[in-house]
Amino acid sequence: MKKTALLTILVITLSCFIATAQKQNKKMKKVLFVVTSHDQLGNTGEKTGFWTEEFAAPYYALADKGIQIDIATPLGGQPPIDPKSADPASATEDTKRFDTDTALLAKLKNTKKLSEVSPSDYDAVFYPGGHGPLWDLAEDSTSSDLIATFYTQNKPIAFVCHAPAALKNVKVNGDFLVKGKKVTGFTNSEEAAVGLTNIVPFLVEDMLQKNGGSYSKAGDWQSYAVEDGLLITGQNPASSKLVAEKLLAQLNAKK
Hints:
15% strand, alpha/beta
């Protein structure tokens, strides 16, 4: 009799534990990171890709708070890293952590193919920058459709530095998504400072204004991000963590 009672107690305890774990798992938020697959800096013969800080800082800012993160690229597999972002002069605590994070580096080698992911599986989407997105994500219809779907599903969409380039052809109800919205992104003066004004296919600041965005900026290389409803944009690498913090706040506000 005592054994039966003890067994009953154990079963009930285990059931409660499983139910609690399942409930917590359901509450765990999930974010999709969309990263460039493009590695050529125009016709310069130099390499480009994503900028390490703009990936690492938001990744850790979200992951350390319990957010689950999947990574997707247009081509799948290993995305190219801009070699200049690996320069010790550009190092931050987040990039140093990234450099020795074997689990994350292995995850990057096996990114999902963008065409095979569904917005319904995620609570938000985040685009890190680097010059790569100016060539592929800006013109990728799969990416444009995915952004529009996240937005119409009332889910946050976040971009930093050159990543707002991915908004170039995104439309909702026939209008550019950025039309009439507060936005920021890599400035014309910052592009001039890195000597790539005549190399890039377009300037992020000009494109956002042309598409009707209410563009604003801080001084070059200063941390700056703006939020307009579900749309979050950051100006440059220094703005990466600020964008992630704004995204995290929106995720935490959603039940």
